[in-house]
Amino acid sequence: MSIKLFELLLQASIYTVTISVVSILIGFAIAILLSGMLLSGRGLFVRPAQIFISFFRGVPLLVQLLLIYNLLPGIGINVPSIVAAIIGLSLCTAAYQAENLRGGFASVPLGLVESAEMVGLTPRQTFRRIKVPIALRLTFPALVNEAILILKASSLVSVVGIVELTRMAQDLAGSTFLPLQLFASAGLIYLVINWLVALAGGLIESRLPGVPR
Amino acid sequence: MTFDINVIIGQWPAIVSGAGVTIMIWILGTIAAAIIGFLMAVARQYGGMLVDKALGAIVAVLRGTPFLIQIFLVYYGGPFVGLDLDPLPAGLIGISIYGAAYFSEIFRSGFQAVPKGHIEAGECVGLTRGQIVWRILLPEMTMLVLPPSVNMVVILMKETAVLSIITVPELTATLSAIGSQQYAFVEALSALALFYWVLVEVTGWLGNLAETKLSRFRFFNA
Amino acid sequence: MSVPAIAVSNLVKTFGETTVLHGIDLIIEPGQVSCLIGPSGSGKSTLLRCMAFLEEATRGTIAINGEVLGFTEDSQGRRERISAAANRAIRAQIGMVFQQFNLWPHMTALGNVSEALKTVHKMSRKAAEDAAMAQLVKVGLEARAGHYPSQLSGGQQQRVAIARALALKPKIMLFDEPTSSLDPELTGEVLNVMRDLAAEGMTMVVVSHEIGFAATVGQQIIFLDHGKVLFTGPPQEVFKKPRNPRLEQFLDTYLDRGASMLL
């Protein structure tokens, strides 16, 4: 397989990474909103958040992408397919990240909250100064994991016509009849990207002061 | 925009067939994945360092690459190494191998999480290797691997949808086709989403039930 | 007649079906060091946590320097919850040290001690850190001010925890098994800090298995068994022979842990 083909794959992988990063960030923002709704304790907020999370974790990503891609024009929203793809990925990762955050908050040791109470911090202050920093640190590994999952899941946006890494490999395989080499190369590129993300995640995690033992 | 569900309901034979394929691949694939994964975990635990490293590399590759790429490799690349498969068998193999990688990690963690002390206690009171495995190791492992396994079962069910891309006639492919034929995308896709959603919720609920029933094997408070 | 630092009146605490405290009556005088001793499960920690309002009593009242904490109860047993703000004001007089230290892992020792000064008392960063540093000097850990809890030994963490509580100038210090999570050779450094604190006249209530400490530093020994106060009194009275058989039974397990002076 020629170098030229590999270069094309690499160029396409930039789309993969970009789409993934944007989706993860938007997803994180939405996840914070969802977590807030879940933690609020008020039925008005908790139920819709639970339904959202249940739906986006229960339905395959492919189906979600197809739904959004076909639904938006139906209700009069016409966006480029890349936007539809990012919306789809973001909503999906938001649901998983919200669950991770929920787990992180639940894992904050009760004693740390009690000691905050005893030195006079109000519940709001405790939330801001103690619970949030610790929950985020506890959630970090899951966040890195989710990033890797999204990078892999981005391969599905090929079905709505985005030419990211998988689609490029598909197209090239169709014209060169070298599917083994092309898909193996694409797989290799995914592997390297994921490995780098895991590495970066590990490095950052070791720099974060204090995960509760 | 109108929403006419009858357009879909009219096609119910095709839908049932598609759903049947989905469920069949799901169940067969999951069972195959669990068995292969278990054997891999055993091999890694007791097969020596070389086997462990080799299988470890394979697992890393399977978990680090998208499922779609793996499927494409099997279906489109297969013929080039003498493996000319129809979509359905290719999909089944793909799900089994993908799932096996994840199950092997789940079982491997399970093996290592059973406290050594429990095994040693068994040896001290004179149990044979076989008895230790059957009466101590496996029961304790079951509790440990149950939640991630239920999770995996759900994940594999959702991954079957991806097989529609290589034209396996499962439910996503079937309903998408109906949707485009009848110009009723929204209805078709909504029905599709609902099907998976319900199935996932039910599976999760059953999993919780199983966890509660088996909780007497728990040796720690979770 | 002085107001008691802590007045516990007919305190009952149930968890679901189980009653842990069966009507406790206790007086803790200002400046007094009280040690709560008793077998595991006797309710000592629960009683202490009720004093701190970390647990809500089912019946009975607790008064801190004359002010009722948590719930008021009238003669008919009707209870009324006190506002959160009022509770916080009353609890400001209490400092608590936990068995698990409960230092916040994402802050340094200095950060832990100065946190409440900055956030609650709105002190400037410099003022808060100076005040915090003074406390760390007091417990002998000024050299470790910039360390994170994960970099400190158990004994050091507990001393930071004590400094954190002291930084808020409490009138009463509660200790819930402060040395139970420590390796034996580290308990000494914590007990020394507590000894110094007692010598300065701090009102202290200590739940602990360190009978030696209770016998030498304690001024009031409270023996709790199955949720009831069996008896209280100064150490000379409580520990002198002939002893209450339950106490004798309990002490039998502790003679080799520094309480041999009781023989």
UniProtKB/TrEMBL annotation, chain A:
Pfam families: BPD_transp_1
UniProt-listed PANTHER family: L-CYSTINE TRANSPORT SYSTEM PERMEASE PROTEIN TCYL (PTHR30614:SF0), MEMBRANE COMPONENT OF AMINO ACID ABC TRANSPORTER (PTHR30614)
Entry keyword set: Amino-acid transport, Cell membrane, Membrane, Transmembrane, Transmembrane helix, Transport
Main localization category: membrane
Regions that span the bilayer: 12-39, 51-69, 75-96, 182-204
Annotated ranges, domain ABC transmembrane type-1: 9-201
InterPro entries on file: AA_ABC_transptr_permease_3TM, ArtM/GltK/GlnP/TcyL/YhdX-like, MetI-like, MetI-like_sf
CC annotations in GO: ATP-binding cassette (ABC) transporter complex
Family in the record: Belongs to the binding-protein-dependent transport system permease family. HisMQ subfamily.
Lipid bilayer topology: Multi-pass membrane protein
Protein name, per record: Amino acid ABC transporter membrane protein 1, PAAT family
GO MF annotation terms: L-cystine transmembrane transporter activity
Taxonomy, superkingdom: Bacteria
Subcellular location: Cell inner membrane; Cell membrane
Keyword flag Transcription regulation: no
From TrEMBL, chain B:
Topology of the protein relative to the lipid bilayer: Multi-pass membrane protein
Residue stretches making up the ABC transmembrane type-1 domain: 19-207
Keyword field contains tRNA processing: no
Entry keywords, A to Z: Amino-acid transport, Cell membrane, Membrane, Transmembrane, Transmembrane helix, Transport
Any single GO BP term: amino acid transport
UniProt keyword RNA-binding, yes or no: no
InterPro entries: AA_ABC_transptr_permease_3TM, ArtM/GltK/GlnP/TcyL/YhdX-like, MetI-like, MetI-like_sf
Family (UniProt): Belongs to the binding-protein-dependent transport system permease family. HisMQ subfamily.
Name by which UniProt lists this protein: Amino acid ABC transporter membrane protein 2, PAAT family
Lineage: Bacteria, Pseudomonadati, Pseudomonadota, Alphaproteobacteria, Hyphomicrobiales
From TrEMBL, chain C:
SUPFAM superfamilies attached to this UniProt entry: P-loop containing nucleoside triphosphate hydrolases
Lineage top rank: taxon: Bacteria
SMART domains referenced in this protein's UniProt entry, alphabetically: AAA
InterPro entries per the UniProt record, alphabetical: AAA+_ATPase, ABC_ATPase_HisP-typ, ABC_transporter-like_ATP-bd, ABC_transporter-like_CS, MetN_ABC_transporter-like, P-loop_NTPase
GO molecular function: ABC-type amino acid transporter activity; ATP binding; ATP hydrolysis activity
Keyword set includes Calcium: no
Species: Rhizobium lusitanum
Location of the protein in the cell: Cell membrane
Sections of the chain in a coiled coil: none
ABC transporter domain span: 6-251
Transmembrane among keywords: no
Name under which the protein is recorded: Amino acid ABC transporter ATP-binding protein, PAAT family
PANTHER family with a match to the protein in the record: AMINO ACID IMPORT ATP-BINDING PROTEIN (PTHR43166), GLUTAMATE_ASPARTATE IMPORT ATP-BINDING PROTEIN GLTL (PTHR43166:SF9)
Record-stated family: Belongs to the ABC transporter superfamily.
Pfam families tied to this protein: ABC_tran
This protein's GO CC annotations: plasma membrane
Membrane topology: Peripheral membrane protein
Keywords: Amino-acid transport, ATP-binding, Cell membrane, Membrane, Nucleotide-binding, Transport
